[in-house]
Amino acid sequence: MSRDPAFKGTIHDISGPTANMYAVECSKKLKTGACEDKRCIYPEICPALKIDHARQIHLLKEIRSKPGVKNVFIGSGIRYDMVVADKKHGRDYIEQVARYHTSGQLKIAPEHSEAVVLRLMGKPSPRSLQDFKTQFEEISKAAGKKQFLTYYLIAAYPGCSDAEMEKLHQFVSRELKLNPEQVQIFTPTPSTYASVMYHTGLDPFSGNPIFVEKNLKRKEHQKEIITGTRHSPAGVPPFKPSTRPSPSKTRQRQRK
Questions:
Q1: Out of 21, 77, 82, 171, which could bridge 113 as a Cys pair, Cβ 3.0 to 4.6 Å?
Q2: pTM of this structure
Q3: Domains and CATH numbers, the chain
Q4: Are 79 and 20 in contact (CB under 8 A)?
């Protein structure tokens, strides 16, 4: 590619859907096939999944050294909890990314801050996000670079009500010091746990009922809570926490 006359010296995205999953593989799966647990990095990273950024660091350095290559940027998201969990090479990986592979902004996807929603997402606690943020900002400052993290957040995910969005708004204002603009409204996607939750109103792992916002105007309202453009949706009654289905009452109805 570097020898192509049309190449101008910049690679805008040297990654896949998740940039730092390169060369990360489950030794157990390679030996015995698909794992019954199926959740490799939640609630904790499985010991069989060896998180090691050494090969990706080597790859990035090798690409940078190629004649004709001026810039190599990571345009896709980074799974920051995996970086923080890599005690041997995680800090070096952040160093490489911050110094050489960030084009002003680096994307990460915490999606939410509240435990009830993160558990359903299979996402880590905000602690690893804050750890990654601190290291990235320290290294960027030491390198003399003014660059930032951009955060992908989501509204109306199964299990998320106005109350959780209010808390997410407080978190991003207090801890991340920003007013987010990149906020998406959840859309069911085939063959995902999230879609099962959305259509059934149940947690597929426990069988317990969960709140699912399906009203289009109230979904938009959840997004507006965090973007700061909120207004009461016309013709839609305000959300009340008591409208959440009660697990005990639901089980009683099922027994009857």
A1: 171
A2: 0.84
A3: 104-248 (3.30.750.200)
A4: yes
